[in-house]
Amino acid sequence: MELRQLEYFVTVAETGNFTRTAEQLHVAQPGVSAQIRRLERELGQELLDRSGRVVRVTEVGMAVLPYARAALAAVDGVRLAVDELAGLVRGHVSIGMVTSHNVDLPGLLARFHEAHPAVEVTLAEANTDQLVEDLRAGSLDTAIISVGGGIPAGLAIQVVDDQPIVAAVSHDHELAVHQVISIDTLRGRLMISMPRGTGLRARLEEACATAGFTPRIAFEASSPEFLAQLAARGLGVAILPRAFVEARSEHLRPVTIGRPSIRGRLVFAWRADGPPSPAGRALVRHARQLLGDASSRGR
User: Fold this and answer.
1) Count of beta carbons in the 10 Å neighbourhood of residue 244
2) At 136, which CATH number?
3) Long-range residue pairs from 8-13, CB within 8 A, at least 24 positions apart, any chain
4) Would you tell me how many other CB atoms lie within 10 Å of the CB of residue 231?
5) So what's the pLDDT on residue 100?
6) What is the mean pLDDT of the chain?
7) Residue 259, number of CB atoms within 10 A of its CB
8) Is 47 helix (H, G, I), strand (E, B) or coil?
């Protein structure tokens, strides 16, 4: 019994036609017929009923069919295992990241390199919108992105950080006397924000849209540190993560935004159906375990 005989039999059972089977498998039609006849002689039973215009599977053939499919699937599994290993030996991974994040990416990559020293790594920096697009297109295996409460369509994520987004102002700013403000308090005020396409900007625009207005952006920059410096000079209200602002309490005051509150999540993301490369899939497994362990230690 040969694998090609099982493959021919399964394909004829699915197509109901020897000619279509030959075309699908790119072999000569007489060869298909001859190999299935040889299989039937070996088993001592007919597997196919050829009496009609459409070839039908006999009762014996129906009993054999699931085992034939299982045998072919097992062979595919063997090939996949070899391909996965070969892919890791000569593999390549592409990782995207937002400009500002608190993931120990060098540490994660060092651990991954230790396990898979031959895999090449490419890093790319962009805003969240671009990274999401690249993940969906398959040009990136994984990425660190900033998202809101939902998950971008077509992606799977592991949350790395989830914290409130606040209004950051200088100590002599008129809003500095408040503990909490509503989003409507920011209507018409000069604001300092990350550019469009970033997670922070998207969260701000979503909250403002809910309140019925468009934020008045006076300054924008891709560096949170630069935004903080502008706000500390009294040039407007910067929209930044609370922990980032609290770490700069000498120059900035964080004011909680309520009704609605704004939260930002930093996540490790990959395509929901898995990265396209074996090395990429290995990186996802590695990162999920490492980030999960870090999250457990943080609780």
Assistant:
1) 21
2) 3.40.190.290
3) 8/32, 8/35, 8/36, 8/39, 9/36, 9/39, 9/47, 9/48, 9/61, 9/64, 9/65, 9/68, 10/65, 10/68, 10/69, 10/72, 12/36, 12/48, 12/55, 13/48, 13/57, 13/61, 13/65
4) 27
5) 73
6) 88
7) 13
8) coil
Burial of 153 (0-12, 13-18, 19+ CB in 10 A): exposed
Average pLDDT over residues 111-116: 86
User: Same structural domain for residues 185 and 200?
Assistant: yes
- Final residue of a domain: which of 70, 89, 108? 89
Residue 16 belongs to domain spanning: 3-89
Assign residue 13 the CATH number of its domain: 1.10.10.10
Last residue of a domain, one of 37, 65, 89: 89
CB 160 within 8 A of CB 147: no
pLDDT at res. 270:
94
Give yes or no: residues 39 and 104 share one domain.
Answer: no
Residue 142: how many other CB atoms lie within 10 Å: 23
Q: For residue 40, which amino acid is it?
A: E
* The pLDDT of residue 296 is above 70: no
| 146: nearest Cα among 89, 200, 109, 96 | 200
Same domain, 259 and 271: yes
Residue 5 is predicted with a pLDDT of 92
User: What's the CA angle centered on 129, arms 123 and 135, to 5 degrees?
Assistant: 55
Question: Residue 170 corresponds to which tokens in the numbers above?
Answer: 């200088």
Banded pLDDT at 298 (limits 50, 70, 90) = very low
If you search the block for the tokens 């209507």, which residue do you land on? 187
- Identify whether residues 111 and 251 lie together within a single domain: yes
Q: What confidence score (pLDDT) does residue 87 get?
A: 58
pLDDT of 173 over the 90 cut? yes
Which pLDDT does position 89 carry in this prediction? 56
Domains: count for the chain: 2
Distance in angstroms between the alpha carbons of the first and the last residue of the chain: 58
pTM assigned to the model? 0.63
Q: What pLDDT digit, counting tens, does each position of 183-202 carry? A: 999 999 999 999 998 888 98
